[in-house]
């Protein structure tokens, strides 16, 4: 009985840890951007029919190399090696010798003098951030960045996820942008945004102008009424400035409207001229 309870407890812990890992992986690479009344929503780790794990590599990692430098990395999650693990020295910051590569999100191996590969952690899952490649062109794709602060130097790694809704292409080139800074790019449908019409909750120019005019009118009434009440000693409705004008305003507007209607319609059928024809 105790053995069964222990087994159920272990299974529950595994399920919970899996769900937490999935949730954290999906939340790392989710963000939105609003431009010109359009809402661009990106979710790199969301599943699709073609890519069940989104931009996250199903192999557990991506790999790219250039001029003797090799970089293993994973997007929106940590790396997992079921085969072909990194073999290099100084892997303590990324899982240790027995689990090398499984304690970080980006690992760089460089061959030093003597032919020995030495590992350097250049990105951690906790440091992963996602942003637009170009804010002027939100449809271009997403830039995923990660970094690691080591005892000797600070390192970083960035991956441009180029939007292409029809094809996937893994990393082909590795660019060294600094002393311990590297960059690459992939092409993936997950880099494309879900575009929606953004809700415009702000005030338009006409509404803003109307509010300004109403505020000025209110200030005019309050200031005028205060002046007439305290300085002139007027009481009652007469404290309203230009009361006669405001009282006659509806009648004036009605007359103006009627005049415009008559002008556009012309004289009515029942209209008779006050002039009588004269025979000579």
From TrEMBL:
<keyword id="KW-1133">Transmembrane helix</keyword>
<feature type="transmembrane region" description="Helical">
    <location>
        <begin position="203"/>
        <end position="227"/>
    </location>
</feature>
<keyword id="KW-0732">Signal</keyword>
<dbReference type="GO" id="GO:0012505">
    <property type="term" value="C:endomembrane system"/>
</dbReference>
<keyword id="KW-0812">Transmembrane</keyword>
<dbReference type="InterPro" id="IPR018939">
    <property type="entry name" value="Autophagy-rel_prot_27"/>
</dbReference>
<dbReference type="Pfam" id="PF09451">
    <property type="entry name" value="ATG27"/>
</dbReference>
<keyword id="KW-0472">Membrane</keyword>
<feature type="signal peptide">
    <location>
        <begin position="1"/>
        <end position="25"/>
    </location>
</feature>
<protein>
    <recommendedName>
        <fullName>Autophagy-related protein 27</fullName>
    </recommendedName>
</protein>
<dbReference type="GO" id="GO:0016020">
    <property type="term" value="C:membrane"/>
</dbReference>
């Amino acid at each position: 009985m105790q053995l069964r309870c222990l087994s159920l407890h272990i299974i529950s812990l595994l399920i919970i840890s899996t769900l937490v890992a999935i949730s954290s992986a999906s939340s790392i690479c989710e963000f939105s951007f609003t431009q010109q009344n359009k809402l661009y929503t990106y979710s790199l780790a969301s599943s699709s029919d073609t890519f069940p794990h989104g931009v996250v590599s199903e192999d557990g990692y991506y790999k790219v190399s250039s001029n003797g430098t090799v970089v293993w990395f994973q997007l929106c999650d940590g790396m997992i090696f079921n085969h072909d693990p990194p073999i290099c020295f100084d892997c303590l910051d990324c899982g240790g010798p027995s689990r090398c590569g499984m304690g970080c999100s980006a690992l760089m191996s460089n061959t030093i003098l003597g032919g020995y590969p030495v590992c350097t952690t250049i990105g951690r899952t906790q440091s992963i951030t996602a942003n637009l490649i170009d804010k002027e062109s939100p449809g271009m794709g997403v830039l995923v960045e990660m970094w690691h602060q080591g005892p000797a130097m600070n390192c970083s790694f960035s991956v441009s996820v180029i939007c292409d809704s029809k094809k996937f292409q893994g990393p082909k080139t590795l660019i060294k942008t600094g002393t311990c800074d590297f960059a690459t790019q992939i092409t993936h449908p997950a880099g494309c945004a879900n575009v929606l019409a953004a809700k415009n909750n702000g005030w338009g120019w006409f509404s803003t102008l109307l509010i300004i005019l109403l505020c000025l009118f209110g200030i005019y009434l309050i200031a005028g009424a205060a002046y007439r009440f305290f300085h002139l000693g007027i009481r009652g409705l007469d404290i309203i400035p230009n009361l006669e004008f405001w009282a006659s305003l509806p009648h004036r507007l009605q007359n103006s409207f009627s005049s415009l209607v008559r002008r556009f319609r012309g004289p009515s059928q029942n209209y008779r001229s006050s002039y009588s024809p004269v025979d000579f």
